[in-house]
Amino acid sequence: MIPPKTKNTVNAVKKVTKKVTKAAKKNAKKIIKKAAERELVSFDFAVKYLLRGKSDYVVLSGFLSELMGKKIEVTGILESESNKADINDKTTRVDLKAQISNGELAVFEIQFLREFDFFGKVLSGVSHAVTEQVKIGGVYNIKKVYSINIAYFDFNVKREYLFTGKFNGFHGVHYKDELISFAQARTPKSKKLFDIHPEYYLILPRMFDEKLRNRFDEWVYILKNSAARDDFKAAGIKEAKTKLDYLRMPPEKKKEYERYMENVRSATSAILTAEGEGIQKGLRKGLREGRQEGLREGRQKGLRDGLREGMRRGKTLERTGNIKNMHEVGVPVAQIAKGFKLTEKEVGHILCLPPAKNRAPRKNAKKANLVFTAKTRE
After folding, report:
1. Where are the domains of the chain?
2. Using CB atoms within 10 A as the burial measure, which of 49, 91, 289, 345 is most buried?
3. Tens digits of per-residue pLDDT, 180-197?
4. Is the pTM here over 0.90, yes or no?
């Protein structure tokens, strides 16, 4: 018969083992579920070459809806000189202009490599989208433009991967509570006002830590990994899994995609190589110039220090000569020390006299004392 104490211990061990086994199974399911994902073509390739038909608008509509937090419907793709497709293009810049709900526009800009005028391009794209709405001799019936910018390079940010920029109207300078919205009516008789100032979004997929905080993060996951997990439920992703599935692509489309990605890799490699060589040249030049500058500064410092030391020694020699002259004419050591703000011991050391002689008055001491006093008063 098992003692009660031992029996309780065995039961406790069984319970713990059961909990551990259950937790292990649960974690294993999570790992399996996380690993189950589908390889997709890169979003930039899809935007430039695949998502052009009406049946594809649902993918872009889902992306924009999750990004803006409201229902967005893409109604058309607007072609222009800036977004015509060219499979041999190696500029690593992709853009697309789509017409959305209420006649508004969404301009996509996808950039892989850092360029100093990146935001200038963003502003130019938005400006074109605005000015193209105005016909010669017509009214300024402007529709709002949304600028969607996806950048695969570093902006020196620490953690954030999604930014937004929006003009919030004209604020009073003297009366802070007064505000004029940047909005206007669509027709002279309409009283409903529409915000017409562009709105900007900046997405940095490489900064994404893959923690899903909301449904748009599922899209950011796709932007970063070119893959979609089976548990993703954001708008448009279900259709994206089908339309952008790499394995389902026809052989000729696969070749186009591979050539496109090779162009992107080639351009990236060229830029990174140039940057690396530039850094090395800069380091060598900086080291060389630094040495030269150091030598120049060293010479100048040496001259300054030498001049300062020479002046100090000159003053010391002059003081020593004056002390000796005064002592020769009989000025007491105490009086000399007081006049030069030294101790009697320091004066005695300068005169090379024994301590006993330091205080001994010399001939004409009284006369010399008067002379010294008069000089110090002057």
Report:
1. 1-31, 36-249, 284-377
2. 49
3. 999 999 888 999 999 999
4. no
